[in-house]
Amino acid sequence: MKSKQQKLEEIIFKTTGMKREPNETFEQFEARVKAKDREIAERATQNLNAAKQMYQYCLDNNFGNGMNEKWGVKHFMLIEQALQSDEQVLMCFIGLHNYISMTKHDNNFAYAITNKRVIMAQQRVIGQVVQSVLLKNLNDITANSGLALGVITIDTIKEKFNVCVDSRSANKICEKVHEVLLSMEDSRTTQPQVQIQQNSSADEILKYKNLLDMGVITQEEFEQKKKQLLGL
């Protein structure tokens, strides 16, 4: 029967890929795992708009694999160069583009979800490919996982892009994409409400100013109402 520590080691390996070294105590292993988690969390808070950071982000989060650093950074460099001044990369991943089968695909691409669009890029020996889809033209992003491989489908109003990754990464990538998209949706719905409230307060103050000018209320009553509306 497996001990509690053995079960924990198996869970850690499944979620992080980290194993305990032969001469390492469980406490030392646990401390190393926690240190790695802190390192990943710190990197996650960094600006993802640089190519090397995007590539490292994919490695840290197991968001796709099978692409060495040299070419990975080259692919993400195309995304970095394509970014607009007010555009921010929110998450990124790596996968086989336009996947049909293991012998039919367009090789590895770099993918980034920004606050404006989905960008797909590949640096070739001769030439390059950069495609993008505005978020407003995105229907959904879904994952379909098998025993070893998973396919992420980027469904747009014009076409679908199938991206192949390993099965464990497929669900993680899809979950993170939805987290990012929902977060942006929440911020969009919250912002107008704040603006409406501000406009409403301004309208109310103007109404009481008119009453003051007409002599219906006193200056003291006006100041009191204004403070109330502004939450002072």
Descriptive notes:
It is a single chain. The chain is α+β, with helices and mostly antiparallel strands and 232 residues long. 50% of the residues lie in helices and 22% in strands. It is built from 6 helices and 7 strands; from the N terminus they run H-H-H-H-E-E-E-E-E-E-E-H-H. A 4-stranded antiparallel beta sheet has the order 1-2-3-4, with helices on both faces. It has a 3-stranded antiparallel beta sheet with strand order 5-6-7, covered by helices on one side. Helix 3 packs across helix 4 and helix 5 runs antiparallel to helix 6. It is extended, with a radius of gyration of 26 Å. The N and C termini lie far apart (65 Å).
In short:
The chain has 232 residues and is of the alpha+beta class.
| Number of distinct helices | 6
Strand order of the largest sheet: 1-2-3-4
Count of distinct strands: 7
Report the C-alpha radius of gyration, rounded: 26 Å
How much of the residues is beta strand, in percent?
15-25%
Mean pLDDT: 84
Largest sheet: 4 strands, antiparallel
Structural class, by secondary structure, is alpha+beta
Helix content: 40-55%
Distance between the termini: 65 Å
**Shape annotation:** extended
Run of helices and strands: HHHHEEEEEEEHH
Q: State the low-pLDDT regions, or none.
A: none
